[in-house]
Request: fold
Amino acid sequence: MQSPSKLTSQGESIFSVMTAMATKHQALNLAQGFPDFECDPALLDIARYYLSNSKLQQYAPMPGILNLRKQVANIIKNCYQAEFDPENEITITAGGTQALYTAFSTFIKPGDQVIVFDPAYDSYDPAIKLQGGFPVHIPLLPPQFKIDWGQVEKNINPATKAIVINNPHNPSGAVLSTTDLDMLSALVLKYKLLVIADEVYEHMVFDSHKHQSLYSRIELRQNSIIIGSFGKTLHTTGWKIGTLTADATLSFKLRQVHQFQVFAVNHPLQHAIADYLQQYTPYLELPVFYQKKRDYFKTKLQNSLWKFLPCKGTYFQLLDYSAISNLPDTEMAFDLVTTYGIACIPVSVFYAGNVKPNLLRVCFAKTEQSLNQGAAILNSIQGL
Ligand SMILES: Cc1ncc(COP(=O)(O)O)c(C=O)c1O
Reply:
């Protein structure tokens, strides 16, 4: 029997492709967004303790353990002066990816339109389409990747159900201003839209910028679902533990679906994170930590032909290679991994339309040694 997939046109994600190529060619992997250094040894010690607790080898409570939800509520309060009830408004998920999927699958119905800004993280589009929804892609352009809110309003019609906001923005490193949030609020309230706010890089904002979280917008509480990731915040992307925060009415509906998508998330590691966050505030150190890495990498390449685009947040840096090559970015990325031994992500794959900037994305969540190696390779490339 022929059983066509509901995602017929979907190939393997570029992150898997580039990581597989990096492994095959023994290349330095600056492509996929994960740290190549260990998380805090104190967190690992706590994790070992809970992993060996025989009482924690079975299912966790469906919404997540209460102590972890309380820690999340504390962080939201400390960082954004907003009160969320850990009992009814915070749910622990299997990473940001599941949180996003749960948000789309709870609220997007066949025929609904969802506004997505390109370049867009690759899970939004398929997650919307699997619900029978239609992503409406609005391209943001380099170097600033600013949202034109007038253009957004022109794309809103009676079928528009939701808008996806990724702030800080992967892959551009752009961050939203308070004016952006004002414009967003005005549209959301005027057209009664739902906001799916992907804030997995919330603690990685640099220079004089401040993260403008949707948590800080009281007027948006009834319309917003906010997604977080401990993978990003604690350097533990392999643990796949994230958060879904929304007011009690939205959270009730999200949990109705969450319970059948995963039921519950890794039990001992939830305890480990909760215990660790009770003692430490590692997220407060992330801006300085990652800004140093960003600046270190940039300094190493200051005399090269690679042009650094502004990076205000996340752990990604966009590199313009126009002075080096005219190759399309996908070919450039393949050449770099096969010939030069360095894997990056071509930015055109984040656009649904025909936007093909001469840009590559590199991840600087790497050790000094990897950043040195990456800079040495990139410095050696004079022309392709
Ligand atoms: C913008 C964005 N959203 C969500 C995710 C997924 O987060 P997680 O690894 O916690 O599933 C990522 C991971 O790279 C991301 O970059």
Summary: The chain has a mean pLDDT of 96. The first strand starts at residue 28 and ends at 29.
